[in-house]
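Long-time lurker. I teach an intro course on protein structure, and each term I like to show students one example going from raw sequence to a predicted 3D structure in token notation. This year I'd like something fresh instead of my usual example. Would anyone be willing to generate the tokens for the chain below so I can use it in lecture? Attribution to the forum is fine with me.
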Amino acid sequence: MSALILEPQNKVAKRSAAIDFCTKFCAEDPCPKYIFGRNVYTRSVLEHIKVDGVIDDFTSETIFHGVPIRKTSYVENNALILIAAGGRPLSAKKQLDELGLHNIDYFSFLKYSGLKSLTPVVFNEQFADDFRVHEADYEWIHGLLADETSRTIFRKLVSFRLNYDLDDLQGFSAREPEQYFEDFLQLAPAGETFIDVGGFNGYNSLEFIKRCPEYSAIHLFEPEPENYRKCMEALQGMPNIYCHPHGLSDKKETLRLEPQGSGSKISA
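-- Reply from a regular --
Happy to contribute to a lecture. Here you go:
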């Protein structure tokens, strides 16, 4: 086994409990069944399983794809709840655990439900196949990291993407505004250079400037014309900023871009 793959804690017991939960959730068990959250994963499960409701505490809507929307306070104590939160799954699980409600995360459900046509986790498609083919490259990247904090984060993320075990995410939190500017990077107020690949609307470059006001330079790459215009407006008048109306690659070529805001992608 690769040194990057962490051995799950209490592996046998956790696997047995997850299989038992999935078996009851997928069968015509008399327990009430709910899905926590509304997204593509929820819709995917609803194609296979009849549930009593979808949980959303922050909406005034009452129906989701023909299923009643309920508040957490409505849910019976003996209910089975599938957490369909792709983002912030630890927060969702903590909320349900504190209420004493029996739950399982979508990652475990993917592993143990036996349903083959569920929607895969976005951003994790075919990761296991890629890792098997390029394991030596992942080990190489791990070896390039200069501090133990970065190496630990890298190992935990690789392991989570392979094992789908939420324990690998313990210690992480949702901190999108700080995601490129963690404290352990020890950025200096002066002399730093920032490469903003996929500038979108210039937000991250502005965040960099807040932290490093006496920066050396910023190079921003944004191929989508409307996003590029927003970057130019946001950074107008600031010194040593170089905005490039291109994508960034290891080779020069012409490609097509499908603009979808922050989800823009290369398209055929």
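Some talking points for your students: The two ends are 37 Å apart (CA to CA). The mean pLDDT is 91.
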